[in-house]
Structure formats: structure tokens, C-alpha cells
Amino acid sequence: MLDIQSTPFDQPLKIIIGAGEQRYDGWIATQKEDLDLVDPAMWAQIFGERQVDAFLCEHVWEHLTEEEGYLAAELCYHYLKPGGYLRCAVPDGYFPNEAYQRVIQVGGPGSVDHPAADHKIVYTYERFCAVFTAAGFEVDLLEYCDANGRFHYNHWNPQAGMIYRSLRFDHRNRHGELNSVSLLLDAIKPKS
Fold this sequence. Notes:
Strand order of the largest sheet: 2-1-3-4-7-5-6
Strand content: 15-25%
Shape: globular
């Protein structure tokens, strides 16, 4: 289980949920056994009254059922400080690439590095935003495809939470070709 006691109260508490191999300075990397997104008792035991400044979660939400996704959003909201945020990325259900869609589909094959056999949902930006707005978040879409398959990009700072599977950082997106994208958003807890 996650131990946050080593993070002083005067320093930002930033948590990577389902980190895999991700390690970033100033962030605490967790796996499911450290912080289960859908276990309210575990969250209460770990955080108590302590609030988190930021969560980062790359390609995890699609491994939850839609109902679990709503619960996870509520837990993140509850334990975030007012003004805190969750930067979250999932595969994009509107990306107009047949090979990509086969890889990310529910129960799909995935890739060598990113298995998808346990994908439970494929999100579009409307459906993903609804998960977070239902919990009380304000949502800022950073990267996504619309229903016509057109890719939209709003500049975001990787220092606020690095997402590898994105326009700028994914090695598959080189030489002006968009070969792999994420639906990427910031879910922000209002300050009041």
C-alpha cells in the first residue's frame, strides 16, 4: 500500500496512478496494489484527511468498467485539493485509423508493450468528459479527435504531468504523421 508519510506537508503531493514504468521527479508512482482506483477504503486509509495536489493517469481508465470509472473520478475528486487536477489519458474512440481501433477495442489484442485484452470501454471525448463532470470536475480537453475524426490539440505543459502517448512525445508520431493519439484531458477541481 502507498505510504505518503515521507512527503512533507509543505511539498506538493503528486501521484501517478497505474504508473507502470513511468517515473518522474516530484511524482509518487503507484500500481494497483499501492492505490486501487476503485477501493474507497484503501483511499481513506492512505490519505485520511490529506489532500493531493495532482494525479496523473495514462491509459488506465479504459481498464475499468464505466461504473468503476465514475467511482474512480469521485475518489480522485474527493481527495484532491481545491484547484488540484487529474491529468488523464485513454485511447481515443474517434481516432480514424482502423489498425489503431483494432488494437484498442474492448478485449482487443493491444500491442506487445500495451495489452488491451482487459479493455472494458473505448471512450470518446463526450463520454470521457461526462465521467469527470459528473464527479464535479471542470474539464479541459488537451488532445482529442472529434466525431468527424479531426484531431484537436490545445497546448499543455508536460511539467504539470507528462503523457508519453501524445502528439508531441509518442515516437510513432514523427515526420508530420499522426499514427497514435490519446484522448487527453485535465479534470480540475474548482477552487470553491
